[in-house]
Design goal:
mainly alpha, Serine Threonine Protein Phosphatase 5, Tetratricopeptide repeat, 2 domains, PPR_rpt, repeat, TPR-like_helical_dom_sf
């Protein structure tokens, strides 16, 4: 397309180049996408935030995080302030590649006047919880609430998962209660998350209690949850009476 335009005396602009870069990224031809960006520079055509966001996303999907960070810095050197999409793309790449300290990026966002989206907040929460920084995650979550941001079900579930992983089960239960009080209702993932938390923390009664609530609300146990219950039945961790209770409460409820 670009060559046809040039042969006909029509010079490609930033929209044309951005579209071509997007096409190369979708086809996973990252080298050609980068070449297009470099050609823009040679022709004196300034990329815009959409151009960089497109390339950042392509680099993230290709697991070329170092290159993504390089172009993220380059866009700022060119006077382009990243938007929430660019930050979310980089956050996601950092998280999935095991880089669990995204707070510097969050501070940079704040300094640039970019408000985090729900999706970005969820990525950050998950990253903090996965790295064991549950206090930072709780502080961040509380800060969001104080600023009037309404977390969605995914964010609540992520925070509950982090609390469960760090054996803070009473806080996980309290957060689930607050979640409902705030008009955000748990889904199957939320219930399965807290049930697995109680099982892994050897609190069978609470696990069964939440299982009953979950079933009464029309949700079912996920495969991972079922495996944990079945593993308990085949282990020596439970008394015969506890195993009988488990069979009646769990397996009857799930029609197994």
């Amino acid at each position: 397309l670009k060559e046809i335009m040039e042969r006909n005396g029509c010079q490609p602009d930033v929209v044309t180049f951005s579209t071509i870069i997007n096409g190369y990224c979708k086809r996973k031809n990252i080298d050609k996408a980068v070449n297009m960006l470099q050609e823009m520079s040679r022709k004196g055509i300034a990329p815009n935030v959409f151009t960089y966001n497109t390339l950042l996303d392509g680099l993230r999907k290709a697991n070329k995080l170092q290159h993504a960070c390089k172009y993220f810095k380059e866009m700022q050197l060119h006077g382009i302030v990243p938007d929430v999409i660019g930050y979310a793309t980089l956050f996601d790449g950092l998280h999935k590649n095991g880089h669990h300290d995204p707070m510097a990026l969050l501070r940079e966002m704040h300094n640039n006047g970019v408000a985090p989206s729900i999706m970005l907040c969820n990525i950050l929460l998950d990253s903090l919880c996965e790295s064991g920084r549950v206090k930072d995650a709780k502080d961040f979550f509380s800060n969001l609430l104080s600023k009037g941001l309404k977390p969605n079900c995914t964010m609540y579930t992520t925070m509950i998962k982090g609390l469960c992983k760090n054996r803070l089960m009473s806080e996980a239960s309290e957060l689930l209660r607050r979640m409902e009080d705030n008009g955000c209702f748990p889904n199957s993932r939320t219930y399965n998350t807290i049930i697995r938390g109680f099982i892994l923390n050897s609190e069978l009664q609470n696990a069964l209690c939440y299982h009953d609530i979950m079933v009464n609300r029309g949700f079912e146990a996920e495969a991972e949850t079922m495996f944990l219950f079945m593993d308990l039945l085949s282990s020596d961790q439970l008394s015969d009476s506890s195993k009988e209770l488990l069979q009646k409460s769990f397996f009857v409820g799930d029609k197994l």
